[in-house]
Structures are given as structure tokens and as C-alpha cells.
Design goal:
144 residues, alpha+beta, four-stranded antiparallel sheet
Amino acid sequence: MAPRPPRPARRPLRPTRDTAPCLCGLPASYGECCGRFHSAAAAAPTAERLMRSRYSAFAVGNEPYLLSSWHPTTRPSRVDLDPAMRWAGLEILATTEGSAFHTTGTVTFRARYTRRGEEGALHERSRFERHEGAWVYVEGTFVE
């Protein structure tokens, strides 16, 4: 059996302009919303906004942002982004704490996707903490 060729690097699917609608679902342009977090022009002010920006980062294939927004104690060495995965929408179902006045928070969400023509959804409760003043993703638990 011949070895499989390496997967081609996934080219990020970034919005073509900062004025394009943001992928996270909020009624703002990418540049005003998640784009400013991805470019490090601003930090996500709440756990929910960090969750939304991480969803957008998955959608555009922004591995550096995903890694930088991950807590150092749980951060993997790399993120295996699936080039066949197309993220199709984010729904925030619940939040606890996670505001500017908290040090921890959770966000429960459902993210829809298509992969090789099949639709699916990721339903997760994610835990966030402040680390060195910024919100970071700690871990997630799948919700049935």
C-alpha cells in the first residue's frame, strides 16, 4: 500500500474585507468584531466574545489565534484543522459569569458545520479564565 500524500495546508478562509459580515453571527463587520481580536488590535472583553472569536478563527483557519487564546496549561502544540470542515453558524445557548467583573466563565454553544457534504453540530460547554488579564479558553465538555 502506497503512503498517503500529506494533506495540503489549509488556506485560511478569511473574509475578503474587514467590512464583510462577521462569521460569529453578531451584527457587525468582521473588522469591527472578531477581526480586531484576530489581529491583536484588541482583546476580547468577555468570555462569550472570546468564544465567538475562536469560532471565527476555526472558520477562517487561524491556528495562531486559536493557540494564543488557549490557556497555557491546556494548550496543545498545534491545532489539527480539518480542510474538509466548513463552519456554518454559531448559536450561544447559555453563559455563566465571564464578564469584565469575573475571573472565570462558561459558554455553552452549538456550532453547525458541513464536512464532506454531511451536516453536523458541535454542542459544547467551554470553560474560560482570565490569564495575565486576558480571557483564555481552558477546556470544553461535549453536551449530549
